[in-house]
Amino acid sequence: MKRVFSLMCVCVVLLMCVTSCATKTVQTPEHRLQWWLADIKWDGERLSYTGKNVDIAILDTGIDATHPDLAGRVVSETKVSGLGIKEDETKEHGTGIAGVIVATPHDEKGALGVAPDANIISIDVTDDSSGKVVIKNLIDGIDLAVSKEVDIINISVGVKEGTEELHEAIKKAYDNGIIIIASAGNYMEDEILYPAAYDEVIAVGSLSKKHEYISPTGTKAAQKVVYLPGENIVSTSSFGEYKGFSGTSFSSGILTGMVAVSLEANQDSERTQKKVYSKMEELYGRIGISVNDVL
């Protein structure tokens, strides 16, 4: 239970590579050029839904809730017990995940998320800013999310080997009607990190701007993975800044935002947790997923 996994085993990859992109979206600040919003047809297909009244737990490094583009969206901040003091208090990774889900640009330099009216519950489960995570802390974070009765849990960290205790925590969350979305892992071929590998979790992989698989790349893994953009995802960062991130962590955040929009759109219908999972199964391995596909 006290095993610690290094960065190589955790899908927390931060590639600070903000670059320009020719794609332009209708309602995105021009200089941010968030190509991935156009890729999922956010502007054309989001209708009037913005994730309102949907509660999302982000299990990550914690979030810099003072970022102006996240104002009012982080409704709760906590960390699991027993975490050590971080050498670097940056919450860059978790702040980036929050941004792709709920950011609203405070000015022309701002970033935009998929579901800007969703509520974020930040649960810090990492020991330091490099992304090291102890399985016990991950389990405790899942249990905290369950106790807060969230609609979605986003887990953008992972380990190579699961445990019975971790699986039990995931099953408890699933049995409580929560939709669990987790990154499949970076630099993966036919393997998927845990907890994304569990049947109760929707695993998310990453695509390049050219719609090529980045991770995982194997045909076996693709049978259980929903693929979304994961290259140069410009989002919010610590201390009010912005950065370009890459990796399945941010692909996971994009899907979380899309599912939040879906939950709002279907709140008066018969859509259940199992129907959401069934819809995801239709999208496994597919390239070019739009907001309407998730609705």
How would you describe the overall organization of this protein?
With 295 residues, this protein is α/β, with parallel strands linked by helices. It has one domain: Peptidase S8/S53 domain (Rossmann fold). Helix content is 28%, strand content 18%. It has 9 helices and 12 strands. The strands form 3 sheets. Strands 2, 3, 4, 6, 7, 8, 9 and 10 form an 8-stranded mixed β-sheet that branches. A two-stranded antiparallel sheet has the order 1-5. The chain has a two-stranded antiparallel sheet with strand order 11-12. The N and C termini lie far apart (39 Å).
What's the CATH class, please?
Alpha Beta
Number of domains: 1
**Cα separation of the termini:** 39 Å
Oligomeric composition of the shown chains: single chain
Element string (H = helix, E = strand)? EHHEEHEEHEHEEEHEEEHHH
β-strand percent reads: 15-25%
Helix content: 25-40%
Q: Please state the CA-atom Rg, rounded to the nearest Å.
A: 17 Å
